[in-house]
Amino acid sequence: MTLWSSSELFDVFPQSKESQISEFFIKGISIDSRTIQQGDLFIALDGDPGPEFNSSVNNTRDGHDFIPMAISNGAAALLVSKKVDTNVSQINDTPQILVHNTLKAMQQLARAARKRTKAKIAGITGSSGKTTVKSWLDQLLVKQGQTHASTGSLNNHWGVPLSLSRMPQNSDYGIFEIGTNHPGEIAPLSKLVSPDVAMVLNVLPAHIGNFAGLSDIRKEKLSIVEGLNQQGVLIVPVELDIEGLDFRKIVTFGLGAESGADVYGEASFSGAVTSVKAMLRGQAINYDLNVHGDHRVLSSLAVLAMLDCLGGDIHKAAKQFCTLTTPGGRGNVQTLSGIHVIDDSYNANPASMSYAIKALRESSTNGRRIAILGEMLELGDQSLQSHHDIAKEAQSLDGVITIGDGFKEVPGSWGHLNSSAELDITDLLKGLSKGDSLLIKGSNKVFWQSGLVKKLIAALELI
């Protein structure tokens, strides 16, 4: 299926059209030469996000250096900021769209994609759980219409415009995750997405080391309204302070009728199932989840509110909540050799760490509750106290291994390691018994990037 034709692309970049370029068609868009698919447009980014995102980590790589690989992997055209002319005939035969700045050009293409669609658009931000909420919305809405959602965690200054530019024109729904780790990043991304409905899932002390305090994180998250039109809807937790926010329509979600939320629910836990009795606009909506924890219930209520605001069928969706799967590293449970492995290794902050420990502590397992907790990064002055608080909370578990400098002063009951590389998986498994539950939770660099859970799963599969 054609995503963009050459004529459509040159409508977006008229100054780049050359008469000698023959007509071509684009099936997808990529910024990574390693994963490019046949028929993709390859955008050669130079790694500099520019002053609008001057606090983001710069990448010194230049995408133009990887054009030969992109071509060999199937690129149908190139978006470049400098004409590439080599002795490789295949490159010279590939159409090149020349622009001044490829990141700004990708943003320009994203705006064109947003403008040409009649889809209802959702924008989601929050300190924790936004990828799960996006994934759940995608899984539910895809059964109600043509749905396009950003993949993985494409939520930054590269990911958001890339995801938008990939949106087919005939989409009925578009779902986009908007992230930040420094002040001033959400508003420009929200303006790109221009959501019909925007959500602030939560405001937690994630990346707080890069902000003056929690109030500044709140301000940053709420800046998502800068992309909303006057008829748009903002969805927020009922407890979030929105004083001074000049916006017309706000929908709140929360736990229990006493919360006073517009969308609220109460949960009961039985075995592997969480049953939720929710109320939305006076309607009772009952559904089951295959995950545990109050934070998951809150996420499901936020999804319910978003579905309703987007015009989706909430009753149809309610029947399908029990089928929802969670993205990798966000609390997925696998049982191997009788051991329940809870993979929450993608990232961590004090609130999400507390949620995970509480969910483990309250789980219905018959065995022991054990956790491998990795340090939480980017907490600034709050790091020491936050790690002390989590260590104290984890004392309620049957066993804890701590990893990283953050937990150095408060080692776990089963010991402390400097890095995940020091963890002896064979020795760990010898200490586990059938029925035990093992939680792995920590900041992205601690476990996710090292692939610890994959190694652990591989070892369990051999038992």
Poorly predicted runs are none
CATH class of the largest domain: Alpha Beta
Rounded to the nearest angstrom, the radius of gyration is 23 Å
Tell me the major beta sheet: 9 strands, mixed
Task: Report the CATH topology name of the largest domain.
Answer: UDP-N-acetylmuramoyl-L-alanine:D-glutamate ligase
Order of strands in the sheet with most strands: 8-9-7-10-11-12-13-14-15
Explain this structure.
With 463 residues, this protein is α/β, with parallel strands linked by helices. The protein folds into three domains: 4-102, Udp-n-acetylmuramoylalanyl-d-glutamate--2,6- Diaminopimelate Ligase, Chain: A, domain 1 (3-Layer(aba) Sandwich); 117-323, Mur-like, catalytic domain (UDP-N-acetylmuramoyl-L-alanine:D-glutamate ligase, 3-Layer(aba) Sandwich), CATH 3.40.1190; 332-461, Protein-Tyrosine Phosphatase, Chain A (Alpha-Beta Complex). It contains 14 helices and 21 strands. It has a nine-stranded mixed β-sheet, sandwiched between helices. α5 (130-141) packs across α9 and α11 (350-361) packs parallel to α12. The longest helix is centred in the middle third of the chain and has 16 residues, at 294-309. It starts with a strand and ends with a helix. The model has no long low-confidence stretch (mean pLDDT 91).
